[in-house]
Design brief:
Main location: membrane
Shape: globular
Pfam family, one: MFS_1
Strand order of the largest sheet: 1-2
Strand content: under 5%
Membrane topology: Multi-pass membrane protein
Number of strands: 2
Organism: Nonomuraea bangladeshensis
Subcellular location: Cell membrane
Mean pLDDT: 81
Order of helices and strands: EHHHHHHHHEHHHHHHH
Structural class: mainly alpha
């Protein structure tokens, strides 16, 4: 008979046997969000892309192909990361992936050829892909009562914070190091490792038994809801029978063309298309992200208070179309930096006005079809958007090299118009409900 072997957990793994509440849960959720930020930050390359292309004599088309292949590699890794985290634990896999990817930034700083960049980026995104999946699971572990959609809303704070942090650091440190992209790779590695130290020190996860208990309680709640209406069962096929949900998915995918063009090539557009210094371009991007974050909070709160979605979606999209048309007309040499900064920042602001109400409207429309299929609806949307991103990485550089950024941004403008047209199928009100006058009851 073989002796029973006890698997020893690594020193950084802290498993919770009691579900945290109050400030403790919020703190652990914030650490999970920090982990998401680090996972996105340590693979950010948009901040140094103009300098990197110039130094390696790399065309935009070649970079697009490298980026598309590395994204696919990261997607494959994400599936393995989720499986391993369920088997061995979230933190057991997450901490090494974050730390190794951070260290890979120092390897990135040694790259001196396009082939070297390709292999390093594939390595980084293969490791990072597993980490991204695990951060999503960890955020979900600490927010079951909020629902899946809202839990993943917290998760998105990571990518937004990572973009801002990378752009802000590059905007203020590039001039200190002679606009060397290698300096940013080293700084990103150092900052990422420092944040990893905080995560290692404070991170914790529910034990497998505790996760099973929480899932059991949630399953009981779902079963009770089903027993209240036994004639109806949630089916994924139900989503495909409703044209307005497809209008949401396909329309917003068109909207996302502009967002991901700016997220991937924002600094390159400002630097190559408008002649801005790379450091100044990063400061402009950082300002736009801040305004976008403010718009998301303010408009989201106002939309919830009025219980209106479609007017905000329409207003934000119309303003985005107008600002983007003006921005396309500006592209060229000799445009004042202040004018470019104002228009670019306003574009991010207007996109923020449209996006959060759309997310709420999509969630509500999916919930009206079947509340238990919200996660599936969001999953279908996310899959379609990721296919678009890979296509964008391959197609947009070829379009730009053939006819310039104006043409590709014209494609992004068409995507905004498609999104605006798709609103005709969205369910929801255009006006707030009038308060109902309740007749006074005479006193006896």
């Amino acid at each position: 008979m073989k002796p029973f072997r006890v698997r020893h957990k690594p020193f950084y793994v802290r498993e919770l046997s009691v579900y945290p509440v109050g400030r403790r849960r919020i703190f652990l959720l914030s650490i999970a969000v920090l982990a998401s930020l680090v996972a996105n930050f340590e693979t950010t390359i948009a901040t140094i892309l103009p300098l990197l292309m110039q130094d390696l004599d790399m065309s935009l088309t070649v970079y697009g192909q490298i980026a598309a292949l590395s994204v696919l590699v990261g997607g494959l890794s994400a599936g393995f990361g989720g499986i391993l985290s369920d088997r061995w634990g979230r933190v057991t896999i997450l901490v090494p992936t974050l730390t190794i990817t951070a260290a890979c930034n120092f390897l990135l700083a040694t790259v001196d050829s396009v082939a070297g960049l390709f292999w390093v980026r594939c390595l980084m995104l293969f490791i990072e892909g597993a980490g991204i999946t695990i951060t999503a699971s960890l955020v979900r572990d600490f927010s079951p009562r909020m629902g899946r959609a809202q839990a993943f809303a917290f998760w998105t704070w990571g990518p937004v914070g990572a973009s801002f942090l990378a752009s802000a650091i590059a905007g203020f440190t590039l001039p200190l190091f002679g606009n060397s992209w290698r300096s940013q790779a080293i700084i990103m590695g150092a900052v990422s490792l420092s944040l990893c130290a905080v995560i290692i020190w404070k991170i914790a996860e529910p034990s497998a038994a505790l996760r099973a208990e929480v899932m059991h309680h949630e399953a009981q709640a779902r079963t009770q809801a089903e027993e209240g209406n036994p004639a109806y069962r949630a089916r994924l096929a139900e989503l495909f029978r409703h044209p307005h949900l497809w209008a949401h998915v396909l329309g917003n995918t068109g909207w996302q063309v502009l967002y991901w063009t700016f997220a991937i090539f924002g600094q390159t557009i400002l630097s190559g298309g408008l002649g801005m210094d790379p450091a100044a371009a990063n400061r402009v991007v950082a300002l736009g992200i801040v305004l976008n974050a403010v718009a998301v909070v303010v408009v989201g709160r106002l939309s919830d208070r009025l219980q209106l979605r479609k007017p905000f979606i329409a207003a934000g999209t119309v303003l985005t179309v107008a600002a983007l048309g003006y921005f396309i007309a500006l592209i060229g040499p000799g445009v004042p930096a202040g004018q470019v900064t104002a228009v670019y920042a306003l574009l991010y602001l207007f996109m923020g006005i449209a996006y959060v109400p759309w997310m709420a409207n999509f969630s509500e429309n999916a919930e009206d079809v079947e509340s238990r299929l919200q996660g599936s609806a969001l999953g279908i949307w996310g899959m379609v958007v990721r296919v678009m991103i890979v296509a964008l990485l391959v197609v947009s550089p070829m379009v730009v090299e053939a006819s310039g950024w104006q043409t590709w941004l014209g494609v992004a403008l068409a995507g905004q118009v498609v999104f605006l047209a798709s609103m005709a199928a969205f369910k929801g009100r255009w006006r707030a409900r009038r308060p109902v006058d309740v007749p006074a009851v005479p006193s006896p």
